[in-house]
Write a structure and sequence with these properties.
single chain; 290 residues; alpha+beta; Thrombin, subunit H; four-stranded antiparallel beta sheet; disordered C terminus
């Protein structure tokens, strides 16, 4: 290698060294990329973070657990009654007693004295649990909680299907059934002479339909009845009722083109007629459906 070649090589090497030094210096003084220099979370800078609105202490109730699902098998639930810490649940398979304090539950059905498992109604009557059944009449739980006193057609009940029970202020007990309404004067259920039955026929149409769904008493002691054929009220031996013709609702034939369903709602009553067969009451004529 001659002198000129050596000098040229040294110059190139020097330039490379200077360039490398300048590049390293520039990188050392440039800001770090954003992801490396972003500020730490505010909670870290400000000390320990306070619990947020969605953070719950172990003792706090979980709002996402507001609903608890209870399995009742294939039973459907038609009635419920709160009695202090006890919840009574009326199902198509009997009555369930649920203790909210310890999650214990017990089933009462035809194996424990009810005449039918299907339950329409639950209430307290004379301080005792009253169960209105479909096909098994009215049952009152004995005071010791074991066994039932049954009130059915032989005792004066209008029908074995019981939809509602009302204890009036004057002590009378009213019972809504599939074949009229019963009044038990003074609430003396064990005295057959105290039982009265009201139907379309013996009230001369005062009760607009024998199928009575619900009962209520107003502040004046007037008893109101919800029936398949309209609304009725009874006061001092006098009846008054309201139906389609008097402005209560509207006749299906007049409004059928303006409503979403296409079946006559009156036909739904066939479901209850079929229940008599499903409950093992094959001898009952299901064609009879007041």
């Amino acid at each position: 290698m001659n002198k000129f070649s050596l000098i040229a090589a040294l110059v190139i090497l020097a330039v490379a060294v200077v360039a490398a030094y300048q590049l390293g210096t520039q990188q050392a003084t440039e800001p770090a990329p954003a992801e490396e220099t972003s500020a730490a979370p505010a909670a870290t800078a400000a000390g320990p973070r306070e619990p947020s609105a969605t953070t719950r202490s172990p003792a706090a109730p979980d709002p996402n657990a507001a609903f608890t699902h209870f399995r009742v098998g294939k039973r459907n639930v038609k009635a419920i009654l709160s009695d202090g810490p006890i919840m009574w649940v009326g199902t198509s398979g009997g009555v369930i007693r649920y203790d909210t304090r310890n999650d214990e539950h017990r089933l009462f059905d035809n194996r424990s004295g009810l005449l039918a498992n299907g339950v329409f109604h639950l209430s307290k009557l004379h301080g005792r649990l009253a169960v209105g059944t479909y096909g098994g009449g009215l049952a009152l739980m004995k005071e010791n909680g074991e066994g039932w006193d049954i009130y059915n057609i032989p005792e004066g009940l209008a029908d074995a299907f019981v939809y509602d029970v009302l204890e009036a202020k004057n002590g009378d007990v009213w019972i809504a059934t599939w074949s009229g309404a019963n009044r038990v004067r003074g609430g003396e259920l064990d005295d057959p002479s105290k039982w009265d039955t009201f139907t379309v026929k013996n009230t001369d149409g005062g009760l607009p339909n024998d199928w009575v769904y619900g009962l209520a008493e107003d502040e004046d002691g007037v008893v109101w009845m919800a029936t398949e054929g309209g609304l009725a009220r009874y006061s001092g031996g006098n009846w008054e009722n309201w139906n389609h013709e008097s402005g209560l609702g509207a006749a299906y034939q007049k409004v059928r083109d303006q409503i979403s369903f296409t079946r006559d709602p009156a036909q739904f009553s066939k479901h209850h007629a079929r229940q008599k067969t499903e409950m093992g009451l094959e001898k009952v004529d299901v064609a009879y459906n007041p």
